[in-house]
Amino acid sequence: MEHTPPPFFVRGPAPLVRLAFFASLSLALLVLDARFGYAEGLRSVLALAAYPIQQAARLPVVIVEGAAGFFATQSRLREENEALRARLLVATLDAQRYESAHAEASSLRRLIGATERLERKSIPVEVLYAGRDPYARKVIVDRGAQHGLRPGSAVVDDAGVIGQLTRAHAFVSEVTLLTDKGLAIPVQVLRNGLRAIAFGGGSSGLLELRYMAATADVENGDVLVTSGIDGTYPAGLPVASVVRVERDASYTFARVLAQPLAGVERGRYALVLSAGAGQAEYPKDPEERKGPKSRRAKKPVADGR
Amino acid sequence: MAADRSRHLLLPVRTGTIVASFVGALLLDFLPWPDVALTPDFVALTLAFWCVHQPRRIGLGTAWVLGLLVDAGNGVLLGQHALAYSALAFAGIALSRRILWFDLWGQALHVLLLLEGAQAVALGVRLAAGAEFPGWSLFAGPALATLLWPAVVWLLQLPQRRPRSLDETRPL
Hints:
The complex is a heterodimer. In chain A, a hairpin with a 6-residue loop joins strand 7 (195-200) and strand 8 (207-213). The longest helix of chain A is centred in the N-terminal third of the chain and has 38 residues, at 74-111. In chain A, the strands form two sheets. In chain A, strands 1-2-5-4-3-12 form a six-stranded antiparallel barrel. A six-stranded antiparallel β-barrel of chain A has the order 6-7-8-11-10-9. Chain A is α+β, with helices and mostly antiparallel strands. Chain A has helices at 15-36, 40-70, 74-111, 286-293, and strands at 122-130, 138-141, 154-156, 161-168, 173-177, 184-189, 195-200, 207-213, 223-226, 238-246, 253-260, 269-273. Chain B is mainly α. Chain B has helices at residues 15-30, 42-53, 60-74, 80-99, 104-128, 140-147, 149-156, 158-161, 166-169. Chain B is elongated. Chain B starts with 14 loop residues before the first helix and ends with a helix. The chains are: A alpha+beta, B mainly alpha. Chains A and B meet through helix 1, helix 2 and strand 1 of A and helix 1, helix 3 and helix 4 of B.
């Protein structure tokens, strides 16, 4: 045992007082972070402090991957190369068709006077590791605010949407996956254009369409795509396919479950589609709108009075 | 009882040792583990060690700051680990005299209680914030960490066991 003379007089505050102090400090931070989102500045500073340690922790993985890549056999590489070449051919054909269709669509849109849809910038990212939070479904990707990523952008892979970029640190970002309980995405049924909102199902790995009337026209196998009405996700991205529809006469709503189409939990590379630049701002709160609104209240009021 | 066992006379602990051990624990925590729920929380384990063995050097302040670092590094709710680690440090310091009286596995049993308690605090915080319960495997991580306790004690006391130089400890 180590023997040091006990400090007779200098004791500081009692342990229980200290515990109460730090516990209340933590609780205050928790409330600020969870309810109001005021703690982001502190979080980014702390994340920057933890960044070198995180990078060092990734070193073994990087080394192992590098070694594995070095010893990859030539035959496997050749096979992969051929498969990729075949896919490229298909993709090129698709791209050509897309080009012509796009040109046609934009000329038609100009004809009817609609605004030109803004091109979105896409940034390829690599998934570094799954988020270290057993309570949420997140992954960390290798690009951050320094590379132009902004929170709110949609994240897709080659098969569809995998989630939304929810927090951009300086060099890495957090992507909340579709299956996270806290994520909702506006979708529509590809077959008939029926709009709905898909919520993450948590540990089941499925999505749930809530608030669908029991008589809604949804069937097994229906493909859900983004509807684009929120301005966050571009319209028409594949999201999920319906795997189960339960209609119970005793409930108002049908229970619709869907399986994500993209490799939500397994993909390695993804594309971040930057949030559209020219989208309209959110409407302000009604109370806030009353004051300055009188000046430009030229819109016809249609409240039925 | 372990009181009559012969114990090593230990050198006073250096601040560098403590800092290095915490950096190492953070490093282990940030490794890309396949399943987070089953992974021991090395920072909590190291914190428990220092709180039990050096209650005058390591206090709630250290625990709180470490908790914030882990929160930011893991991208979880800010304050979740800070609260859990503060409670862990408090319990560890309060029980340190009692815990040191036991042999290694008796100590490990106490540490199991401390770690599970910290995990339960974090769980309570997240459930209150609206997360879903991720399953009972959450409590397997601290149990696995407890199995590492004898190794941690041996490893972290290693710098204190080594004599500074041969001449200082020579009887003549």
